[in-house]
Amino acid sequence: MDRRLGAVAQRRAAALTFVGWIATLAGWLTTEIGRQPYLVYGMLRTAEAASTVPAGNIVLTLIGYAAVYTLLLVSYLIVVTQMARKEAEGSPQPQLKPETWEAVNA
Q: Total domain count for the chain?
């Protein structure tokens, strides 16, 4: 029994690659937008909402995050490229024995 995904399912799975990133951004936006009414209606002063962290620390943190995300992106691209090359070369895929499938699907 062939268990490979169809072309449509593969495209859908590839589209889901960025769902975690989108969820993170949505959470950040929700947090930031949630603060605004307190500032607009005077319940929270701007000085209270602003960070007291020195600008140098913020820059270092931003550089650190950028470096980590760049490393993760490069690692991801390397792995995906290697996987695509193996598939293009026709490397044999590991196959489960029929009795193993029966145990998994039981």
A: 2
